[in-house]
Design a protein that fits this description.
By secondary structure, the protein is α+β, with helices and mostly antiparallel strands. Helix content is about 25%, strand content about 35%. The protein has a five-stranded antiparallel sheet with strand order 1-3-4-5-2, with helices on one face. The radius of gyration is 16 Å and the shape is globular. The structure holds coenzyme A. Belongs to the acyl coenzyme A hydrolase family.
Length: about 140
């Protein structure tokens, strides 16, 4: 996992606000809620990219750098790292911001892998044109 950096990397795939129901007894947001937002953000990007349904097959090591408080805006940025035959490996970063008085702060990041699946939940090939677009963008 790379170190935290000053600016988010990737596409803003999901943005929401942490609510009181998302907190633990200390008033901080549950880590599981944050992972859930990351999974949703990654699925949105993976499904748009692969033109169909996707399932999460793995979540790699994650470190939580700062707590998220109620009312903070939580932004999930997604970046495709690798496209296989049926899988998409994606870096997902979470950043939080309170108001315009300070710059956003990175909360966590992780590498998620999604598998393109059909309506029966069986794996399917990533469309060739989508994969080619990704490879072309990598090369440029
Ligand atoms: C997704 C699913 C259909 C894949 O079927 P499968 O027969 O297990 O698939 P495979 O083992 O052939 O792997 C499919 C792809 O995922 C990759 N993969 C498998 N396990 C992986 C892992 N632990 N980490 C990263 N990639 C992995 C494979 O390399 C392969 O990639 P490629 O086709 O691009 O080369 C099946 O595993 C499944 O339904 N899992 C449950 C998904 C789910 O419910 N997720 C929500 C969690 S509650």
């Amino acid at each position: 996992m790379s170190d935290s950096h000053l600016m988010p990397e990737g596409t803003l795939s999901l943005q929401t606000i942490a609510m009181p129901a998302d907190t633990n007894w200390s008033g901080d947001v549950f880590g599981g809620w944050i992972v859930s937002q990351m999974d949703l953000a990654g699925a949105i990007h993976a499904e748009r990219f692969s033109q169909g349904r996707c399932a999460t097959i793995s979540i790699n090591q994650m470190n939580f750098l700062v707590p998220v408080k109620v009312g903070n805006v939580v932004s999930c940025y997604t970046k495709i790292l690798h496209v296989g035959n049926t899988s998409i490996q994606m870096q997902i970063e979470v950043w939080e911001s309170h108001d315009r008085s300070r710059a956003p702060i990175q909360v966590t990041e992780g590498v998620f892998t999604f598998v393109a699946v059909d309506s029966n939940g069986s794996k399917r090939q990533i469309p060739a044109e989508a994969k080619q677009q990704f490879l072309d963008a990598q090369a440029s």
